[in-house]
Specification:
With about 80 residues, the chain is mostly helical. It is built from three helices and no strands.
């Protein structure tokens, strides 16, 4: 895709891949970054944990990290 003049680029109509390719060439384009970041939907796959404000919160966070590392290691060894 030829991005042409910056003023003619319609970020809303670009696919995610096209927008990412554009951003790799125009890393300082705040408008394009804003649209790219608005498209992400981390809440669909994110796991939210409470802020570790006390000993119990720290324990919960550490255990969650251990479990996630264990899952990743198991997945790597099975691939």
């Amino acid at each position: 895709m030829d991005f042409g003049d910056l003023y003619e680029t319609n970020f809303e109509q670009m696919s995610r891949a096209e927008l990412l390719a554009y951003l790799k060439k125009h890393r300082t384009d705040d408008e394009a970054w804003g649209i790219f970041l608005d498209r992400r939907s981390p809440d669909e796959t994110a796991t939210w944990y409470p802020a570790p404000l006390d000993e119990e919160g720290i324990r919960i966070m550490e255990e969650a990290f251990r479990q996630k590392i264990h899952e990743i290691e198991n997945k790597r060894s099975s691939d």
